[in-house]
Amino acid sequence: MMQTLSAAAHEASRATRDLGSRAAGIESGQTPVIQVQGLGKTYQTARGALELFENLNLEVEAGEMVAIVGQSGAGKSTLLHILGALDTPSEGTVYCASTNVSKLSAREAARFRNREIGYVWQFHYLLPEFTALENVAMPLLARGTGKVEALRTAENWLREVGLEDRGEHRPGELSGGEQQRVALARALVCGPRLLLADEPTGDLDGVTAGRVFDLIERLHSSHRLTSIVVTHNMELAVRCGRRLRLEGGRLTEITDPGPKGLQAGHLS
Ligand SMILES: Nc1ncnc2c1ncn2[C@@H]1O[C@H](COP(=O)(O)OP(=O)(O)O)[C@@H](O)[C@H]1O
Ligand SMILES: [Mg+2]
User: Fold this and answer.
1) Which domains are present in the chain?
2) Is 73 in the pocket of ligand 1 (CB under 6 A)?
3) CA of 50 to the centre of ligand 1 (A)
4) pLDDT number for residue 98
5) Starting from the edge strand earliest in sequence, which strands make up the sheet with 34-45, in order?
6) 146 lines ligand 1 (CB under 6 A)
7) How far is the CA of 74 from the centre of ligand 1 (A)?
8) Phi-psi category of residue 130: left, alpha or beta, with phi > 0 → left and psi -120 to 50 → alpha
9) Ligand 1 atom closest to 78 (CA)
10) Please, which of 81, 117, 211, 242 could form a disulfide with 87 given CB 3.0 to 4.6 Å?
């Protein structure tokens, strides 16, 4: 099994090795952690150009936990992808974790993601053939950490998300909530500064969603993360320190988080 695990990690690490200090643009001690100015994103589609953002601006300070709400198709996932260097802007500048993410090569982007970004999606995307422990260890192995240390760190992370007794389980042997806990441990195992969560509780029942969100809040505080959480769940959005709505290609602050401010009609 370890051979196979090594092979998978090797595959994942190819893009991240040999970069040395070439991860251009990485500086330190700069705030805000996220600084987006004049963002534009255009997709070329069969029906012509689709312009998603219109001069979108965003600043997020270190330690903030920000909820982003908005209708389906508004561009929430695309915005997170751009912040996490999974997609590139068409216009504007995007600084994330002191890095100009629009200027990264594909290899630099992979390294940036490994070091700075913890990403969680609606679906866990755990590798089904590996155990929970191996899934959590994978990003460490990808960056070149030795197997013993990677598995030990992964074990600590499983404990931190309350799953120390599930390490040998494969994703298919875990509940939806447990799968998301493992996904959170995997997202944070490399010690990123930023947590980007795209509808992390969207596939869970209400009670389980609340518990996974409790965990996100706890990890956010204890690891001094800066977190952006896209959610359709208004009860969860109001628990974030700041709420933004993505609408008409721009972000606006939701200052009144009451029933009107977070009206279901604005969401989907
Ligand atoms: N790679 C792509 N090519 C073309 N259109 C895309 C691509 N990715 C997303 N879109 C379109 O951009 C819009 C915003 O998508 P998305 O960011 O996923 O929205 P949200 O997460 O708010 O539901 C949608 O209309 C979607 O179809
Ligand atoms: Mg989305």
Assistant:
1) 2-23+63-89+107-266 (3.40.50.300)
2) yes
3) 9
4) 87
5) 48-60, 34-45, 91-96, 99-100
6) no
7) 8
8) beta
9) 17
10) 81
